[in-house]
Amino acid sequence: YYGPVINPKSLTLYETIPSCLLAVSSTGNIEWIAADITASHVHETIIQKGCTDFDVVRLGSGEFIIPGFIDTHTHACQFSAIGTGYDKELLDWLADLTYPGEARFSDPDFARRIYPGVVRRTLNCGTTACCYYGTLHLEATKILANVAHAMGQRAFVGKCNMDQSAPQYYIEPSPSESIQATKALLEHIQTLDHSPAGEPLVHPILTPRFAISCSPELLKELGKLAAANPSLAIQTHVSENKEEVKEVHRLFGCDSYAGVYDTYHLLRENTILAHGIYLTDDEVKLLKERNVGISHCPGSNFHVNSGVARVGEWLDQGIKVGLGTDVSGGYSPSILTAVQHASIASKVIAMEARSGSHRNGHGHDHPHQATVQFSNKQLPIATLFYLATLGGANVCCLQQRVGSFGPGKAFDALVVSVRNDTGNPGVWGVTPSESEDVSEDVMKGWLEQFLFCGDDRNIRRVIVQGKVVGGLDFTE
Ligand code: GUN
Ligand code: FE
């Protein structure tokens, strides 16, 4: 690939490389990256590097490459309900809309009809790696894993565990049956073919829905299953809504929601907790000790009227954070929308802090925190970009493979266009025929406009492990 490349480096830094030559091997891994290569030196450079058999994809004007987006939390089984029930709060929303909708997946044919459209949509939105919740049904969730695998998306797929506090029509009959079905899903996903790089693209993930819907016995068995499989990822919800937190305290006779998961050994490096709005300082400290990642789901936090998460404080304490769309708590399956909502959420926090209306408005003490860089401030663009890519990779423990570009990493990428012929052009007015010298400043502007105003009209190619699997130019 030859053209402008933007590569996230850290929470506060991304690199813009205007004339970048990026070599991808036949297995889909990045071999090398060379900067400052003029158009006339592309072939020469490749041959110097020792390649003899190759194709060159030259990006057109107004096009650039970024790493694919990582959605660290979404519900594949809720896409049909997008946009409904946003005048409710979590517990009513679950009981009145979500559980009835999810119960329809007891019919595998329904799953076969719905899931291909879900994966197609997330892929075309630029999500190259996605953490999916399925329903509690084994068959339907196997179908979801098969679909993600067939469409070439990197994915984590989990079957909900829920054996209490749910309606009779949508509950698992016992902890042992819940565990048995979970093991069957793990075994099924392990049978799926590996990628050309020799590793699985689709991973199983333990998915206790949330503490409320799991009996102590079920949590205990899940903890045992996790202990027997250290590399098995875990996802659940935490401290999303005040009534939910109260209910967890009541059910488990405790005053720490995160502590419930910890009691059952479910907090570890490869655990992803969604939301976290009402985590106490002690709980945040616990998550840091366990090196747990948080999926920040700002769209859902606004639309199900949950609250505003204090992401800046998590980042200042060195907690791993990624973005989640949390469909259908959130209405958009696009990480671009999550970026926009994360920016708004951080601005709400910053405005509250300035007006002194929040507990932390006059500077909150964090004795264990070296620097206060993000707390009570709006998130910089570089940080938003990082959360959407490398931050998400960290949360999924995939940072060695994806989230940014480097030799040996998988080429999971988007070819983005901000040209006039996209149907969603930027103010830059780049025409298809134009060939211009692209400066780093121009690229910075392109990235900002794409993050805040872009959509799937601007995504030409979605590439996972070197293979084009979505975007405008993709044909099946
Ligand atoms: N907590 C438990 N289940 C859910 C769910 O489906 N969506 C959200 N946003 N929160 C939950
Ligand atoms: Fe969720």
From TrEMBL:
One of its GO terms (biological process) is guanine catabolic process. NCBIfam families: guan_deamin (TIGR02967). Pathway: Purine metabolism; guanine degradation; xanthine from guanine: step 1/1. Belongs to the metallo-dependent hydrolases superfamily. ATZ/TRZ family. It holds the Pfam family Amidohydro_1. Its cofactor is Zn(2+). InterPro entries: Amidohydro-rel, Guanine_deaminase, Metal-dep_hydrolase_composite, Metal_Hydrolase, Metallo-dep_hydrolases. It comes from the Eukaryota. This is Guanine deaminase. One of its GO terms (cellular component) is cytosol. Keywords: Hydrolase, Metal-binding, Zinc. One of its GO terms (molecular function) is zinc ion binding. Its EC number is 3.5.4.3. Binds 1 zinc ion per subunit. Residues 64-469 form the Amidohydrolase-related domain. Gene3D superfamilies: Metal-dependent hydrolases, Urease, subunit C, domain 1. Signal peptide: none annotated. Catalyzes the hydrolytic deamination of guanine, producing xanthine and ammonia. It catalyses: guanine + H2O + H(+) = xanthine + NH4(+). It comes from Serpula lacrymans var. lacrymans (strain S7.3) (Dry rot fungus).
